[in-house]
Design the sequence.
C-alpha cells in the first residue's frame, strides 16, 4: 500500500520553480531517501508534504489524506524532525516532550508511558532533566527524533538528520534511525545531500535535481545501472579515442588530465587498458557509488553549486519569500 | 479541547522560560523605577500638576510605559522562534493558528502581569514612605488597575506579535517596534497633562489609544482624569480586540 502518493506536485516562486511536476509513491514501511544537492527542492517538497507550504499545483496524499484539503488529518499522521534545531533550549528535554504532548492533545498516562519508552530508545533517560542547551548536537537531534515519534505517526520525515554533526554522532544517528524503523514499524522519509547516508539507510531513493526526479530505485539498482566499475586514470597525452573503441569500456569521460572510464569486468581488462594508455600518474578503481550515479545523470558532483551547511538554502528561502 | 491544550502548551513554555531568565523581570522593574526617580525627581523639583508632585503624577504613565515596552518587545521571541525551527514545530502541530496566537498572547500577558503586580507593590511601599504621596493603592483600585494594565498589555503583546510575524530579523523588529513605541509613549500624556494641549497636538494625542490607558489609570490611582474611566476602558478594550483580530489574521497568513 502506498502511504505517500505524490501527484504532479509543483511549487513556483516568482522566477524559480523549486519543485517541478513531482510524481512519486512511497510504500508503507519503507525508508525512502530524497537525495540531491542543496537547493534541489528537497526541503520545499518536505514543507509541502507536511502542510507548511501550499503547492502551486498538484497534490499528494499521506495516509490517504490530502495535504491541501485535509491538512489537520495529515498533521496527525506525520512526525517531523526539521533541518535546524527545533527544540527550546531553555527547557529540559523532558519539558520539550511534554510540550509536544499538549500540542498533539495526547492523554496524560499514555503520553508519560510513551515519553519513557522513547527516551529509552534514544538513550536520553539519564539526561531528561537537563536543559537542552547543555546537550550536544547529536543528543539534541536524538531528542527531536523522539519527539517526532511521540504521537505514533504513520510517517516520520527527517530533513537532513545529520547535517552539522561530527562523523561519530552521524554514525550513532544512523543506528537510531535503523533501530526505530524496526521497532516502530513506520515509514521514514529522509532528505539528504550525503551520498553515504542515503546508501547506508535507504531501501529506495529518488535523486532530485532542480526540482525534478532524475532517477529512482534502490541504491543497488541505481549502481547496477552503471554496468561496471569506475576506473580513473591520470596521465599526460591520453589516447582517448583508442579507449573508446574497447568493447568493455562503456563510457569515457574526460576532465583535464583525468579520464574516468566505466568498465565491465574490470579485473580481467585492467591490465590491457593500462598497456594501452602507457605511463600513468595514478590509477583508481572503485565500484560505482551514488555520487557516480549523480554525476552520470547530471554531469556534476552533488557538492558543486552551493556551499554546505544549509545557510545557502536558507538565504534562498529568504529571498524567494519576498 | 485540543486547541485549549495547545494554548496551555504555549503558555507553559513562555512561563518556564520567563522564570528561568530572571534578568527579564529584573530589568523590567528597574527601568520604570529609574524613570520615576530620575525624571520624576529631576523635573519634579520645578514642575507639578493637578496638586500632586510630579513623581506621583507620572507614576501611572510609567506603569503604562513599562508594560507597553515589554509587551511589544515580547514579539521579538516570535522572530527568534522563526530563526530556529521551533516555529515550524508549532505550526505543524494539529492546532489552529488562532490557538497559537492566543497561546502567545496569554504567555506574554502572564509575564507582564507579574511585572504589573511587582510595580504596584513597589508603588504601595513608595506611597507609604511619602515618595509617591497622593497615590491611592488599595484592594479595589489595585484590582481595577490590574484590569486596565492587562487590557493594555493584551493589545500591545498582540501588536508586538503582529510585527514579529511579519519580520525576518530581530534588527528589523527592533527598528519597527521603536518607531511605534516612542510616539505611543510620548504622545500619550504619560509625562504631561492633556487638558490644555496646543491645537495641533491634541488630535494626535487623542488618536493614540495609549492616551486612554494613561488617563484611566491616572483616574483610578490619583483621581485626575480628563475622560470618564468607563470611556477610557472601552477605548483600550476595543483597541485590544482589534489587535487580536489583526494578529489572528497575521498568524493565519504567516508562512515559514
Sequence:
Amino acid at each position: 500500500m502506498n502511504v505517500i502518493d505524490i501527484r504532479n506536485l509543483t511549487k513556483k516562486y516568482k522566477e524559480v520553480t523549486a519543485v517541478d511536476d513531482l510524481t512519486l509513491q512511497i510504500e508503507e514501511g519503507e525508508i525512502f531517501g530524497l537525495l540531491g544537492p542543496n537547493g534541489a527542492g528537497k526541503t520545499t517538497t518536505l514543507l509541502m508534504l507536511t502542510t507548511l507550504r501550499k503547492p502551486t499545483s498538484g497534490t499528494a496524499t499521506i495516509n490517504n489524506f490530502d495535504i491541501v484539503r485535509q491538512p489537520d488529518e495529515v498533521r496527525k499522521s506525520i512526525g517531523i524532525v526539521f533541518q535546524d534545531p527545533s527544540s527550546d533550549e531553555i527547557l529540559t528535554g523532558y519539558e520539550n516532550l511534554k510540550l509536544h504532548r499538549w500540542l498533539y492533545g495526547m492523554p496524560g498516562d499514555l503520553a508519560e508511558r510513551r515519553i519513557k519508552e522513547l527516551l529509552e530508545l534514544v538513550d536520553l533517560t539519564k539526561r531528561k532533566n537537563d536543559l537542552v542547551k547543555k546537550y550536544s548536537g547529536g543528543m539534541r537531534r536524538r531528542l527531536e527524533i523522539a519527539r517526532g515519534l511521540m504521537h505514533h505517526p504513520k510517517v516520520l520525515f527527517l530533513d537532513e538528520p545529520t547535517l552539522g554533526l561530527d562523523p561519530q554522532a552521524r554514525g550513532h544517528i544512523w543506528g537510531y534511525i535503523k533501530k526505530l524503523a524496526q521497532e516502530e514499524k513506520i515509514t521514514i522519509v529522509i532528505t539528504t545531500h550525503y551520498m553515504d547516508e542515503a546508501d547506508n539507510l535507504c531501501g529506495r531513493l529518488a535523486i532530485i535535481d532542480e526540482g525534478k526526479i532524475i532517477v529512482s530505485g534502490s541504491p543497488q539498482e541505481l549502481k547496477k545501472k552503471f554496468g561496471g566499475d569506475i576506473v580513473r586514470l591520470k596521465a599526460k597525452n591520453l589516447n582517448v579515442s583508442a579507449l573508446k573503441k574497447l568493447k568493455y569500456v562503456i563510457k569515457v569521460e574526460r576532465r583535464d588530465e583525468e579520464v574516468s572510464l566505466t568498465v565491465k569486468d574490470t579485473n580481467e581488462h585492467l591490465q590491457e587498458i593500462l598497456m594501452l594508455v602507457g605511463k600513468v600518474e595514478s590509477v583508481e578503481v572503485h565500484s560505482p557509488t551514488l555520487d557516480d550515479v549523480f554525476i552520470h545523470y547530471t554531469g556534476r558532483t552533488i557538492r558543486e553549486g552551493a556551499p554546505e551547511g544549509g545557510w545557502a538554502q536558507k538565504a534562498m528561502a529568504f529571498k524567494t519569500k519576498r | 479541547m485540543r486547541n485549549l491544550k495547545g494554548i496551555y502548551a504555549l503558555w507553559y513554555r513562555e512561563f518556564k522560560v520567563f522564570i528561568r531568565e530572571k534578568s527579564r523581570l529584573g530589568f523590567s522593574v528597574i527601568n520604570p523605577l529609574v524613570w520615576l526617580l530620575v525624571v520624576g525627581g529631576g523635573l519634579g523639583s520645578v514642575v507639578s500638576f493637578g496638586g500632586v508632585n510630579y513623581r506621583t503624577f507620572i507614576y501611572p504613565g510609567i506603569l503604562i510605559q513599562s508594560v507597553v515596552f515589554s509587551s511589544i518587545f515580547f514579539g521579538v521571541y516570535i522572530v527568534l522562534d522563526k530563526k530556529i525551527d521551533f516555529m515550524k514545530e508549532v505550526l505543524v502541530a494539529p492546532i489552529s493558528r488562532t490557538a497559537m496566537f492566543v497561546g502567545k498572547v496569554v504567555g506574554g500577558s502572564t509575564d507582564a502581569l507579574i511585572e504589573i503586580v511587582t510595580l504596584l507593590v513597589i508603588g504601595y511601599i513608595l506611597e507609604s514612605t511619602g515618595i509617591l504621596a497622593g497615590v491611592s493603592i488599595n484592594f479595589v483600585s489595585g484590582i481595577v488597575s490590574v484590569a486596565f494594565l492587562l487590557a493594555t498589555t493584551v493589545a500591545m503583546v498582540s501588536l508586538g506579535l503582529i510585527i514579529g510575524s511579519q519580520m525576518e530579523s530581530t534588527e528589523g523588529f527592533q527598528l519597527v517596534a521603536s518607531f511605534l513605541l516612542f510616539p505611543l509613549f510620548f504622545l500619550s500624556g504619560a509625562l504631561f497633562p492633556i487638558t490644555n494641549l496646543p491645537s495641533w497636538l491634541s488630535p494626535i494625542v487623542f488618536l493614540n489609544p495609549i492616551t486612554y490607558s494613561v488617563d484611566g489609570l491616572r483616574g483610578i490611582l490619583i483621581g485626575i482624569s480628563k475622560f470618564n474611566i468607563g470611556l477610557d476602558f472601552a477605548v483600550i478594550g476595543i483597541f485590544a480586540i482589534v489587535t487580536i483580530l489583526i494578529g489572528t489574521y497575521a498568524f493565519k497568513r504567516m508562512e515559514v
